[in-house]
Write a structure and sequence with these properties.
The protein is mostly helical. About 45% of the residues lie in helices and about 5% in strands. It has 10 helices and 2 strands, in the order ββαααααααααα. A two-stranded antiparallel ribbon has the order 1-2. Helix 4 packs across helix 5 and helix 5 (about 110-120) runs antiparallel to helix 10. The longest helix has 18 residues, at about 65-85.
Length: about 190
């Protein structure tokens, strides 16, 4: 079975883990073109001999700089979390307790940004339809400062959609003004709502 874990401390996402091969650090680094297959294979050999973490080995061998390792781990953690948004079935367990001591790298990831990215990465229109608001809904920016100052990274398209939300226009009136297709616009709107 697929098993993915998200670690949270004091309300902040700090790490994730997965039992899926594609989610492993080395696989992510190869996919991103940060290391070669030969470098990966060499690091796996040393991992088996020494028991060290693969990231540590890659830095020791000079295949990655320490800051590249930090980026890679952050990217891996985000990738695991974002993959959860495309799951249609599964079981969720919440477990309180101490964090695993072997997870020495802890990150502070923006939950708001991950939720936004996760929602806008869903490409199954039928799946999304159940979550989307009515096209007759009128949306307006939140007056709550806690909503406004969350760390959400918007691209140019997302910012253009946000500018169309004025507290007067219905969603169905915003759609034809969007620079993209209806589905992508609705995903951005739902992501902003979430």
């Amino acid at each position: 079975p697929i098993l993915k874990r998200v670690y949270i401390k004091n309300g902040e996402i700090i790490f994730s883990a997965s039992n899926q091969t594609a989610d492993r650090l080395g696989e992510v680094l190869i996919e991103e073109g940060k290391i070669t297959q030969e470098q990966y294979d060499h690091s796996v050999e040393l991992l088996k001999k020494t028991g060290k973490r693969q990231g540590t080995i890659l830095v020791e061998l000079g295949y990655l700089k320490p800051q590249e390792l930090f980026w890679a781990v952050r990217h891996q953690v985000e990738k695991i979390i974002l993959s959860l948004f495309n799951l249609k079935d599964g079981v969720f367990h919440f477990k309180e307790g101490p964090l695993p001591s072997e997870e020495v790298i802890t990150l502070k990831l923006s939950a708001a940004n991950l939720v936004f990215k996760g929602i806008t990465s869903i490409n199954d229109k039928d799946y999304m339809e159940g979550f989307l608001p009515s096209l007759d809904a009128v949306l307006c920016p939140s007056p709550d400062p806690l909503d406004l100052f969350q760390d959400i990274r918007l691209d140019d398209f997302d910012r253009q959609i946000l500018l169309l939300i004025d507290g007067k226009s219905k969603i169905k009136d915003i759609l034809p003004l969007s620079p993209s297709n209806e589905f992508d616009t609705l995903k951005t709107i739902y992501g902003l709502l979430s």
